[in-house]
Amino acid sequence: MNTVTIRSIQIHPTDTITTLNLASDSIGTDICGAIGCSMFDVVGLQDDIDLFVDDVGLINGSTLNLPATVLAHRLGRPTVVFGTAIAVSVTRDGETVGLTDTQYAQIQQALAQKPDAGTVDALVESLSPFPTVVSMLRNI
Predict the structure, then answer these.
(1) Pfam families annotated for this entry (predicted)?
(2) What per-residue confidence (pLDDT) applies to 34?
(3) Which of 33, 66, 70, 72 has the smallest number of CB atoms closer than 10 Å to its CB?
(4) DSSP sequence for 37-61
(5) pLDDT digits 0-9 by tens, 94-120
(6) Could you tell me which of 4, 10, 12 has the C-alpha nearest to residue 82?
(7) CA-CA distances (angstroms) from residue 22 to 2, 52, 70, 85?
(8) Paired sense of beta strands 16-23 and 3-11, if any
(9) Tens-digit pLDDT profile for residues 123-139
């Protein structure tokens, strides 16, 4: 088994952890283990960034992942994320690779900054089934 390190950002609902060691012949299995799911979905974001998420996070009762949800909205994909997410880069051929310095900095910045008014409006619409979260966003 050949293990490679793929530069990534693992985003939990409350914090982030960087760098995962993934075996090149079992990346999908390793990602499922890191997310804590049996099936994942890939959310394609701008600038060749992919976000791996639990495919049934809402159904299985996973916690709303507001940081990953904000990131997805800020990077062009208004979707709601539940449970742990992992951000990686993707080649034009669809191969999962490590984040570049630019992508890494872009994600860190998006996670650290307060969302702009347009992003908050999109979040409010996406999160409308969660009135407590919407109330919190309106007070940002």
Answers:
(1) DUF3846
(2) 87
(3) 33
(4) -SSEEEEEETTTEEEEEETTTTTTT
(5) 888 889 999 999 999 998 888 888 888
(6) 12
(7) 9, 14, 26, 15
(8) antiparallel
(9) 888 888 877 777 766 66
